[in-house]
Amino acid sequence: MSASSNLPEGYRLEVRRFVAANPERVFRAWTTPEELLAWWGPKGVTCVAAETDLRVGGRYRIGNKLPDKTVLWISGVYETIDAPELLVYTWKVGSDDTTDTERVTVRFTATRNGTDIFIQHELIASKIARDRHADGWCGCLDGLTDYLPVTSGN
Fold this sequence. Notes:
Elements: E1 11-19, H1 23-31, H2 33-39, E2 46-52, E3 59-65, E4 71-82, E5 86-93, E6 102-110, E7 115-124, H3 127-151
């Protein structure tokens, strides 16, 4: 069992990326709907909707338009917000109540030239789902890396 949850532990994924922007800028891009629309989603996926209620207990919802034109919804609840260094939120794909709820922790650590991003995605039900999430997170971070230098020098 996870120390922070009564849910089974499941699979865990960790992803790291450096971006050349300060943590405040990265945090804002991660939590502002208009900015999420500009960069969220792996290659071939378009973010068609983003809603955030950035407070503990607040909800978020992101619509991903897949290459086959279907829209996949990701939603959850913010559990911890320590701007601009930490976000913890639940993660649920689809609207089916039988879908397992996962947890995502994102740390934004200042470095001399930007921000190290560390994502821990846990409580994943299967290895296949974990591998899909790995591809998705890497693609999203590619989009964020491309987006941030265009929108601000830091």
